[in-house]
Prior knowledge:
By secondary structure, this protein is an alpha/beta fold. It has a single domain (3-366), classed as TIM Barrel, CATH 3.20.20. It has helices spanning 3-11, 33-36, 40-43, 47-61, 72-79, 108-115, 117-127, 138-162, 176-184, 186-195, 197-218, 241-261, 299-306, 318-323, 326-340, 359-366, and strands at 24-27, 82-84, 97-99, 171-173, 226-230, 265-270, 290-293, 311-316, 345-352. The strands form 2 sheets. It has a 7-stranded parallel β-sheet with strand order 1-9-8-7-6-5-4. It has a two-stranded antiparallel ribbon with strand order 2-3. Helix 13 links the parallel strand 7 (290-293) and strand 8 (311-316). The longest helix is centred in the middle third of the chain and has 25 residues, at 138-162. The two termini are 12 Å apart.
Amino acid sequence: MNSMQKFEHVMSLQPFEKKQDIPVFPHICTYAAVPAGVTQAYLFQGNESFMDAYKKTCEIIGYPDVAFPLGPKTVTYIEQMKVRIPGKDLGENELFQFIEEEIMKQEDYDLIINKGFGKWQMPYVCSIQNPPFTGPFKIFKAIGGFIGCGKEVAANKKFWDSKNIPMMFHGGTAPAFDTFSMTRGLEEFFYDLYDEPEKVKAAIAKATPDIIKTAIGSVKGIENPRIAIFAMRSSATFISTDMFEEFAWPALKQMCLALYEAGITPVVHADGNWLPMLPYFKELPKGSCIIELDGDTDFEKAYEILKGYQVLRGDVPATILAFGTPEETKAYCDKLIDMAMGGGIIIGSGCEVPLNAKLENMKVFLSCTK
Length: 370
């Protein structure tokens, strides 16, 4: 099988006959600078710089079966948080930093409920840029930024298609619950859940259809599209299962179903401990989504829960890639391969490959099914 065929097979949830057909996906974004011998500031120059480094990295460690679609400059724009940028606010080779602070105010829930998510979102996007977008055309600048991100995805897809390598996703979004958590700040948001639960739920309900509509529009014209849903604040690391069921799952389920019904595969990026939340994904159609897990979720137990229901991606830990030996890396990959033979697993890194991942470990990781 080529990489495209491997991806199609894993989505079928059917067992693999040969380990060579199991897809391997290292989440490489900022790490692209390391084997390529360039700085983080270089990656932030734009998409061409990122792809130049990514291609060089693949020539050194090996090409993946599934590619990460975006460089860090684009990722930080899509994530919609304030950010410190290498070479500008940080040293040339320092990792970018998201800044979490209270920007959204409690009264903004009323704005969203009464006038819609977009009325709040676009001014917010303008305010968090570095420097902020100002002037009478600032909203058009914000919209233009998202259009630019879409053009970069299309350009990168063209390259990876030429290699018969699928990208993990073609657009990104986040549930309102997670967006509010980050833009209000975690502490203030938790107070809101206690003090104004019905208002928070009403704002989530109002925002979700707008978020879905924008997400679907972002992949228009792409064949077999996938959209990442960054739901990092909906895990048991942050909330109880009761809170998940009341506040987070209804909108996340609505998003997954709407994307699936539109012919789009949701890729739920599930950092943190999701083990108590995973049974809920059995409420979705079989094979309708991909769930990306890191080391905080017990991957073996996750597979026991969702085998035959949804595709899982994970979970070679950053600690092994950074501090382990090639033998330890191979042993962990072999354990994942044994599970993956049963179908429905993409062997991947546990979230992003860290900057201090050893080159020899990455080579073992990329060649683990060969």
